[in-house]
Input
Amino acid sequence: MNDYSQFLGKIPLFRDLSSEELKEISLLAKVRNYKKNMLIFLEGEPGEALFFVISGKVKISMMTEDGREQILHILQHGDVFAEVVLIDRGPYPASAEVIETGQIGMLMNDDLENYLRTNPDLALKVLRLMSKRLRLAQIQVRDLALKDTYGRLASMLLMLAKDHGEDGPSGITIDLPLGRQELANLIGTTRETVTRILGDFKKNKCIELDKQAITIIDEAKLKTWL
Amino acid sequence: MNDYSQFLGKIPLFRDLSSEELKEISLLAKVRNYKKNMLIFLEGEPGEALFFVISGKVKISMMTEDGREQILHILQHGDVFAEVVLIDRGPYPASAEVIETGQIGMLMNDDLENYLRTNPDLALKVLRLMSKRLRLAQIQVRDLALKDTYGRLASMLLMLAKDHGEDGPSGITIDLPLGRQELANLIGTTRETVTRILGDFKKNKCIELDKQAITIIDEAKLKTWL
DNA sequence: TTATAACAATGATGCATATCACAATTTGGC
DNA sequence: GCCAAATTGTGATATGCATCATTGTTATAA
Output
């Protein structure tokens, strides 16, 4: 029998549970290896578990009937997802796909729900997580509605830099396995437009491009596009 | 000393608390009358209370620096708002303004927090509320990113009809104190565009217009615009 | 390494929707 | 009920971005 409490202890949601509780919950957890492009769950499927990223990267996205994709988040180690289905027992509101090979943990809703009921601290933690998500989602709504594509892309780059960026000598580098199309699907535009705007940002010496990596070399100037 | 437990009992969030708890909480509540156009709180102010609508209507909105508005929700009797600041103690993420005269109740965060800690059921209710909000926000993100203005307006009308509509002989009537500009600010477009699209919907016999009221007379046809 | 497929860049064109300007209508205060 | 102010409707024009078409480039596998 595996003991996953080492993993759980690194997830902010479960941090500072007592080591006993941690062990107890970890016994209920399942951990699987996922390769790039593997699907974890599909939008609309009955939601039966809460997931957390141990390693690798995960993209959460929604589709329209005609097959166009809107990416909601890019998640990494420590992030939890599908928390809404734990609460309301509805279907998954979005799909989860692995975009960088890694390990994903899962906890069945039924198993976890008891902990929520008896452990108000954990409930509060889930609340905090959801309030953070809600704030982000509302900002996303505002930006999509009111900003042009330059503003949305600049804002997205700054966000990705904060969450996934690595500081380097020339600036913060975002090196995610995201193609132009996926970058476009993050901000509600097209492949071509992303190419053109990135070109403009580069011309203006806000960023540098190298293969799939994007380096922000002048954050202040990039912010003028917001 | 007023007893507001009659009001609280009608708020889904507090329903099925014991009548004792209800009374206890209601003693902490303050109720105020608000006239149309009065501001309840402003985006960015320190968040110090949770609010609930007893009567009247409230609009929740965010602004950009240059003064453009994005409306997030239209709320009515029974709805709770500013729940995120109860959890994360940050500033209000959006402003709340009364668009139809009525009574608004408030509960200071400090007073309520103890209840959350000791009453896991209430915490779960707040969780359910937030998960509902989050699902809605994510759908809004997807629609803003992927649908055209016709689709967004059709979808907004259907939503408003569900929440605020009244069934009548010819269809569901939405009669909210919202101008064209505000309708536009709900779906990220302009006054003029809303006018034109409503005109098209009317020409296609999806809706009827009478002063500020909008009646959906052919829901099925309206849905074809989605 | 070369072959082949996926992805990215670039230019030309078109369309949806913003913007602007003004007329028409409705609303709210006295 | 009347008037001023606010809101709405409507046409003309502008433009940001999508779409389409093509070429160039980068990954993947034999």
Q: What stands out?
A: The mean pLDDT of chain A is 92. Chain A touches chain B at residues 62, 64, 68, 70, 72, 83-84, 87-88, 90, 93-94, 116-120, 123-124, 126-128, 130-135, 137-142, 144-147, 187-188 (CB under 8 Å).
